[in-house]
Amino acid sequence: MDNHLENAITLAQKAEIAYSKFITPNDVGATGGHQQGFHIHQSAWPLLFDKQGEKGANRDKFVTITWQDNFETASRFIYYGVGTRNEYRITRFGKDFPYLNDQHIGDLLVIGKIDELHYHAYVLSTEHEIETFQASLNLSPLDNNKIITHASTPDAKQILEICFKKFVQTLRNNFPSTSALANAAKNCVDQSNKRNAKDIIADPDSYLIELIEAEYSLFRNIENEVYANRIASPFKTVEELVEVSNTILNRRKSRAGKSLEHHLATIFQTAKLPFSTQAITEGNKKPDFLFPDSSSYSDPSFDRNKIFMLASKTTCKDRWRQILNEADYIPTKHLFTLQQGISLNQLNEMYNANVCLVVPRPYLKSFPPEYNGRILSLAQFIECIKSAYSAT
Fold first, then answer.
1. CA distance 249 to 251
2. Which of 3, 182, 228, 300 is 20 to 30 A off residue 91, Cα-Cα?
């Protein structure tokens, strides 16, 4: 594991307060606004100040931030509360600061408080780094842009926790399959909010976010139960410790890879969309979703304008290219991702390759304004599929 990745994980675990977010076009000044600097979500104000900012007044604080264990900046924490503004930012990094440019849009910023005037920060650029960081902290892709809470901190609603505990008790210290875990999370979410199919289809984006958050919380419960005795016992060798740690980390990463696909399938079934999963196409490729089904794709007489594919990837900074040859008959490939913040250059490259992004509706604002209307929400994608078949 790279030193700065390992140190970022340690920082998130041990800092007084830690926070992570994807770097967005707004941060680097690529949206046309006059303000540049890392925007910090309002809920994360304790990272910056001892009390919440109040409308009608600005406030600031100067701190030293150590970046990548390599260099320092004398930076400014500021709350803008005058006029119509109501936002927190970190500014003043110096003219040679390397991370406020288009190249780093979509990277993960991790920052932790050491004491009142000293902070450490890391920027993770590769998908491997980002996914390993999230898996090590057992963070869902939706746990970004907020203060990082440790696994021991309860963060689920009481009704969900009761449902989770009942499910965990049925496992007898064994991990369920990824599909069983996703289904259990769905059942608990549905019990807690009593949402019906009509409600789900009215706002599939919010429902998907709920499902993913619930599953990560449920998985934390299962981990704590399964590993309780093992963690309480001393490790005889370093090798034994590393082996257990790698087992935990790899299980987290492999589960996260299937989670999104399971929950999308649940929503598509609720919306009564016709689709096939993991259908075999050219070269033994297996796109995540084919609409309406694999047999239609293989039928040369079927209208090619009514065949769609959707790939699902939690992050897609580099891996989006993997989907380009998954279905030769389909010119435009749709890709659902939980990635927040992709540079304009990368988006141009994707769309020039006929890849159309689909993201949860709340994430649309993290993309460059030039792509307003070109990136679809989940609800818009579902309507696109429905309209293709309702006309016949």
1. 6
2. 3
Tell me which H or E stretch contains 111: strand 108-115
User: Is 179 within 8 Å of 249 (Cβ atoms)?
Assistant: no
CB 288 within 8 A of CB 268: no
In a domain? residue 82: yes
User: Which whole-number Å values give the CA distances from 288 to 99, 279, 281, 388, in the listed order?
Assistant: 34, 8, 11, 19
Check whether residue 58 and residue 117 sit in a common domain. Answer: yes
Contact 204, 264 (CB under 8 A): no
Residue with tokens 């250059």: 345
Domain at 281, CATH number: 3.40.91.80
Residue 153 domain-assigned (yes or no): no
Q: Which of 99, 216, 297, 363 is catalytic?
A: 297
297 catalytic residue (yes or no): yes
226 and 332 housed in the same domain: no
Count of C-beta atoms within a 10 Å radius of residue 156:
19
State whether 80 and 189 are in the same domain: no
In the three-class reduction of DSSP (H, G, I as helix; E, B as strand; rest coil), residue 113 is classed as: strand
In a 13 Å sphere around the CA of 55, the CA atoms on its Cβ side amount to: 4
* pLDDT tens-place values along the chain, 392 residues long: 578 899 999 999 999 899 999 999 989 887 665 567 999 999 999 999 999 999 999 999 999 999 999 999 999 999 999 988 899 999 999 988 999 989 999 999 999 999 999 999 999 999 999 999 998 888 887 788 889 876 444 443 567 778 888 888 888 778 888 889 899 999 988 888 777 888 899 999 999 999 998 898 888 888 888 777 777 788 888 888 888 788 878 778 777 768 899 999 999 999 999 999 988 888 788 899 999 998 888 888 888 889 999 999 988 888 899 999 898 889 999 999 998 888 899 999 999 999 999 999 999 988 998 998 999 999 999 999 999 887 55
Rounded to two decimals, the pTM is 0.71
Q: Tell whether 152 is covered by a domain.
A: no
164 found inside a domain: yes
> Domain span at residue 351?
276-390
End-of-domain residue from the set 95, 120, 147: 147
